[in-house]
Amino acid sequence: MTNHLPPVTRLPGLLAWRYSFDVAATQGQTPYFAVFEAEFADAAATTAARASPQGRQVAGDVANYATGGAVVIHYPVRPGTG
After folding, report:
1. Of the candidates 29, 33, 31, 36, the residue with the CA atom closest to the CA atom of residue 14
2. How many other β-carbons are positioned within 10 Å of the β-carbon of residue 25?
3. E strand or H helix at 64, and its extent?
4. What are the tens digits of pLDDT across the range 33-81?
5. What are the tens digits of pLDDT across the range 10-33?
6. Which long-range contacts (CB under 8 A, 24 or more apart) does 13-21 make?
7. E-only strand ranges, 27-78
8. Interatomic CA distance for residues 54 and 59, integer angstroms
């Protein structure tokens, strides 16, 4: 991750980011070895960041650590109510 995280921190429009290598399933084995989450203002900002030079550099580095590829999902975050 020493090659992958520096360009991640330079993604344009990045508001926050988090990751973990401590990934576990509630039952059985998980197919994932890591989770990464990046926060952007909206889908357009995410798209622009992924298309940027830094985004292309991040995408190009995936094969160096995720030999099975990566799953990318987009989702809006809603505040919890209680």
Report:
1. 36
2. 9
3. helix 53-65
4. 889 999 999 999 999 999 999 999 988 888 888 888 888 888 888 888 8
5. 999 999 999 998 999 999 999 888
6. 13/40, 13/41, 13/45, 13/46, 13/48, 13/49, 14/38, 14/39, 14/40, 14/49, 15/39, 15/40, 15/41
7. 35-39
8. 9
